[in-house]
Structures are given as C-alpha cells and as structure tokens.
Design goal:
With about 130 residues, this protein is of the alpha+beta class. The protein has helices at about 1-20, 35-45, 100-105; strands spanning about 25, 50-55, 60-65, 70-75, 80-85, 115-120, 125, 130-134. The protein is built from 3 helices and 8 strands. It has an 8-stranded antiparallel beta sheet with strand order 1-2-3-4-5-6-7-8, with no helix packed on it.
Length: about 130
C-alpha cells in the first residue's frame, strides 16, 4: 500500500512539473494583441520585427518581441508593455512617466534611458551610464 501511494505521489508530482513547463510559441506580428501592435507601430515606426513569441505558463501569459535594432519588448497578455530594453538606442520618451523624465533631467542630465520596466507599484529604469533607478 505504501509503495502504491509513493508511486502515485511521484506520478502526480511529475504531472504537475510537466504542466508548469514553459509553453513558448513563435508567432507573427499579426498574432500579437492589438495594443501591442499599436505600441510597436507608434513608438518604433519603420523598425522591423524580427522575432515574437507567446509565453504561456500556468499563472502567466505574455509576449516577447525583438526588433531589428536590438530592442526587446515584453507585453502582458492584453498587449500592455511591461518592459522595454533598447540595447543600441534609447527608450522612447513618450512611454517614460513625466516624473521620471524630470528626475533624470534634473539629476542625470544628458543620460539616456536604455531600459524601463513597470510593475504594479513602481518603475525600474537603467540609464546609459549603467545606473539603475527604482
């Protein structure tokens, strides 16, 4: 009886871990949510999309996009950006909150924002001098 219970527990555990495995799928730009497509067209016009994937986990559904200029953008399941990383350029100023822009201009004049991530309660920003602000 003990062996049967241990075997069932092991099978159940394997099933849970298998379900938790990443379920990524490469997609086209047209398969992105409309809000994500609009964001790319508005803030990165004329830059070709080189890679897009849909990421599905048990608790999270998101999208990751790479552009030809090295930019990486992550979107929520509804197509709202939550992370933008510009490897060879800068984050479009239109998506940076005004308070953050003012703080950077007042304290780090001349530095560019190369990364921005928004969470529920705060933002994380990386500047071109590699300084990280939260």
């Amino acid at each position: 009886m003990k062996k049967i219970l241990l075997t069932l527990a092991a099978i159940f555990s394997i099933g849970i871990f298998s379900a938790m495995a990443h379920n990524d799928k490469v997609i086209n730009k047209s398969q992105l949510p409309a809000a994500a497509q609009q964001f790319i067209n508005e803030h990165f016009p004329g830059i070709e999309l080189t890679y897009a994937k849909e990421e599905r986990d048990i608790f999270k559904h998101s999208y990751e996009v790479r552009l030809a200029d090295g930019t990486k953008i992550e979107f929520t399941s509804k197509g709202i950006w939550d992370e933008v990383e510009c490897r060879f350029g800068e984050v479009p100023t239109a998506i940076i909150p005004q308070a953050i822009k003012e703080y950077i201009n007042n304290n780090y004049a001349g530095e560019k924002v190369v990364y921005i991530e928004k969470d529920r309660n705060d933002y994380e920003v990386k500047l071109s001098n590699r300084l990280e602000l939260k």
